[in-house]
């Protein structure tokens, strides 16, 4: 499966003309540091995406291709688009048992709802603020190790909100939410934070949200 993803990703990148390949790297800057993107060749960019988005590199690429208007490549290589894929937690990419996935197309029709966990409630800003209020001073450790965010972005958040630790936490969580988009659910955040050094009340709060 991993090899198929690697080969497909390289073929997609090789199918792009140089100008669109540079545009692809530009549009990825919100998710990958520019210092890694700018000098990257096509194989190097594939390697970066495979490392940073294990199991999701094709989905990330498909989202950028849609912005570039290359729906033909999405169709040719049968790339998954984010709204077509039932929830799957990237935080479980360390070999845990995957969740049951349904048919990617039937999920959009009332008559064909894919098998998915019931605790896939999307997080609201109020939810994020309540989690932010419970996060302690180790927020950067949480952001880097457990949410997969860049240290430079966390430092930028800190500079933009001087002297307000709760806002640092909140903006960090919002950054994670923007990156995950449709997959920023209660269950995913709980999975990401499960092994972090946190106030146990945070996980208790997330569990309480799943019952709502």
How would you sum up this structure, described in words?
The chain has helices spanning 2-14, 18-27, 34-37, 42-52, 57-67, 71-76, 125-134, 139-146, 151-160, 165-180, 186-193, 200-210. The chain is built from 12 helices and no strands. 56% of the residues lie in helices and 0% in strands. It has 2 domains: 5-77, Orthogonal Bundle (Death Domain, Fas); 125-211, Death Domain, Fas, CATH 1.10.533. It has 212 residues and is mostly helical. α1 crosses α4, α7 (125-134) crosses α10 (165-180) and α11 (186-193) packs antiparallel against α12. The radius of gyration is 18 Å and the shape is elongated. Residues 4-79 form the DED domain. It comes from Sterrhoptilus dennistouni.
Layout of SSEs?
Elements: H1 2-14, H2 18-27, H3 34-37, H4 42-52, H5 57-67, H6 71-76, H7 125-134, H8 139-146, H9 151-160, H10 165-180, H11 186-193, H12 200-210
Helix pairs in contact: 1-4, 7-10, 11-12
């Amino acid at each position: 499966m991993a090899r198929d993803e690697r080969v497909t990703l390289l073929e997609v990148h090789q199918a792009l003309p140089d100008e669109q390949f540079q545009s692809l790297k530009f549009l990825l800057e919100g998710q990958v540091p520019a210092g890694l993107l700018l000098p990257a060749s096509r194989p190097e960019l594939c390697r970066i995406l495979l490392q940073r988005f294990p199991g999701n590199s094709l989905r990330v690429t498909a989202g950028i291709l849609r912005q570039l208007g290359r729906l033909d490549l999405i169709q040719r290589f049968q790339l998954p688009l984010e709204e077509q894929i039932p929830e799957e937690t990237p935080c479980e990419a360390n070999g845990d048992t995957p969740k049951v996935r349904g048919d990617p197309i039937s999920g959009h029709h009332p008559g064909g709802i894919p098998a998915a966990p019931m605790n896939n409630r999307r997080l609201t800003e109020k939810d994020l603020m309540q989690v932010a209020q419970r996060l302690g001073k180790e927020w950067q450790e949480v952001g880097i190790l457990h949410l997969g965010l860049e240290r430079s972005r966390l430092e930028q958040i800190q500079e933009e909100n001087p002297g307000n630790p709760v806002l640092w936490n909140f903006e960090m969580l919002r950054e994670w939410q923007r990156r995950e988009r449709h997959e920023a659910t209660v269950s995913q955040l709980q999975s990401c934070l499960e092994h972090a050094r946190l106030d146990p009340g945070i996980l208790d709060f997330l569990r309480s949200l799943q019952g709502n």
